[in-house]
């Protein structure tokens, strides 16, 4: 099994005919992802050939869903148009929208996430690498060739650290890796993924990657409380930002660290109090995973 994305998933790509959309659609297809169509109102009716795989372009998400049975959309859409694109997908009733776009205004994210919630559409992102269930399907920009199928579930704020942990643990493999994005407002949280991995019978261990990157800064502390009360599977964590200076605005994260809440140390303490082993580096985190698996805990 996997969470949110399986080999049965049928994927549309909004913005497929743009530069980034073309590049990553080609990579998704090469990895075996079932991309069934693109969406671009100005190019509806055309077909794009990806080597030996022709992919039709539809004028809307609703049209693509009607024609193909698609249940997932991946968005490679400029920030100014992301709100309209996600709203269109949600109004069409798509089950999952993966928003890769970086730089989406927060007020736009708040608006389209509220709309998606009301329509029953799960959003991953914005500003995320997407998700991958190795050996089954990938939606977004996560490389498919750096790991293999396995029984570790990974949820991460950081795209780069997602890739690194996948590579560090490539001999063990993953059920699903989800990059939820590092923006202040995202559609799917650590807790959402923890819940899904807890319920997935083919995920034996969960890796949680956080960072001092969210305004307010307490997402990992909230995840720790949830782990303590609801998660019975072993969880290993890593928090990016142990060397970041407090009181300084972090460019990558777009965050302000204030007081003790939101610091890497505070997050580490909260997770460890919930029974989570926390690595200070990705390599140390991978060693914790191997130790837990070896111990059978």
Protein described:
This protein is α/β, with parallel strands linked by helices. Helices cover 35% and strands 24% of the residues. The strands form three sheets. The chain has a seven-stranded mixed sheet, with helices on both faces. Strands 9-8-11-10-12-13-16 form a seven-stranded mixed sheet, sandwiched between helices. It is globular, with a radius of gyration of 19 Å. Mean pLDDT is 91; it is low at 251-260.
Topology:
Layout: E1 11-14, H1 19-30, E2 35-39, E3 47-50, E4 53-58, H2 61-68, E5 72-75, H3 79-92, E6 96-99, H4 106-119, E7 122-124, E8 130-133, E9 137-140, E10 149-156, H5 159-168, E11 174-179, H6 190-199, E12 205-211, H7 219-230, E13 235-240, E14 249-250, E15 255-256, H8 264-273, E16 277-279, H9 282-295
Count the strands? 16
Structural class: alpha/beta
Low-confidence blocks of residues? 251-260
Major sheet description: 7 strands, mixed
Individual helix count: 9
Q: Tell me the helix content.
A: 25-40%
Sketch the topology as an H/E string, one letter per element.
Answer: EHEEEHEHEHEEEEHEHEHEEEHEH
Spatial strand arrangement across the major sheet? 3-4-2-1-5-6-7
Q: What is the residue-mean pLDDT, rounded to a whole number?
A: 91
Radius of gyration: 19 Å
What is the CA–CA distance across the termini? 22 Å
User: What is the global morphology?
Assistant: globular
Strand content of the residues, in percent?
15-25%
């Amino acid at each position: 099994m996997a969470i949110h994305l399986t080999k049965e998933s049928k994927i549309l790509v909004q913005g497929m005919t743009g530069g980034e959309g073309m590049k990553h659609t080609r990579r998704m297809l090469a990895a075996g992802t079932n991309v069934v169509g693109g969406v671009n109102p100005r190019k509806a009716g055309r077909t794009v050939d990806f080597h030996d795989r022709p992919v039709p372009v539809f004028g809307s998400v609703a049209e693509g869903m009607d024609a193909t049975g698609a249940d997932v959309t991946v968005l490679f859409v400029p920030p100014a148009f992301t709100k309209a694109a996600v709203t269109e997908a949600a109004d069409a009733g798509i089950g999952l929208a993966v928003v890769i776009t970086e730089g989406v205004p927060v007020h736009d994210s708040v608006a389209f996430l509220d709309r998606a919630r009301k329509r029953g559409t799960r959003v991953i992102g914005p500003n995320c690498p997407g998700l991958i269930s190795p050996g089954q399907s990938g939606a977004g920009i996560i490389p498919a060739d750096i790991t293999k199928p396995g029984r570790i579930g990974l949820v991460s704020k950081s795209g780069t650290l997602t890739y690194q942990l996948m590579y560090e643990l490539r001999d063990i493999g993953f059920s699903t890796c989800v990059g939820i994005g590092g923006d202040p407002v995202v559609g799917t949280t650590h807790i959402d993924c923890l819940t899904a991995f807890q319920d997935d019978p083919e995920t034996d261990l969960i890796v949680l990657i956080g960072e001092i990157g969210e305004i307010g800064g307490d997402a990992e502390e909230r995840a720790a409380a949830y782990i303590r009360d609801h998660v019975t599977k072993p969880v290993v964590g890593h928090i990016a930002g142990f060397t970041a200076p407090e009181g300084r605005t972090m460019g990558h994260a777009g965050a302000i660290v204030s007081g003790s809440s939101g610091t890497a140390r505070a997050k580490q303490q909260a997770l460890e109090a919930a029974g989570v082993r926390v690595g200070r580096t990705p390599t140390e985190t991978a060693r914790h995973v191997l130790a837990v698996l070896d111990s059978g805990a």
